[in-house]
């Protein structure tokens, strides 16, 4: 996962940007490469046990799951979005909590 994360980070070309510009670029990358997974959300809301083979909860899913040929993105719930943003922001030297 570290290599793929580094490859994504390098593709963003954040050198010389302000912190605000870095945040926007990371945000845009995450939003372009992920769509909200309503199926996982509704399974969770219905009380189903999490099944990581079909439920998309992590930044790993954005980086490694097959891309939808129509949208060009993968599906995750909010933890996938935030997890990838957090990891990329950390690599960019941004203060993230």
From TrEMBL:
Protein known as = Uncharacterized protein
């Amino acid at each position: 996962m570290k290599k793929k994360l580094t490859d994504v980070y390098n593709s963003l070309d954040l050198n010389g940007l302000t912190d605000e510009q870095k945040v926007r670029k990371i945000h845009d990358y995450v939003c372009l490469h992920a769509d909200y997974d309503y199926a996982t959300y509704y399974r969770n809301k219905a009380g189903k046990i999490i099944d990581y083979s079909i439920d998309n909860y992590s930044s790993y899913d954005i980086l490694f799951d097959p891309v939808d040929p129509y949208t060009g993105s993968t599906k995750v719930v909010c933890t996938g979005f935030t997890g990838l943003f957090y990891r990329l922001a950390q690599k960019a030297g941004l203060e993230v909590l």
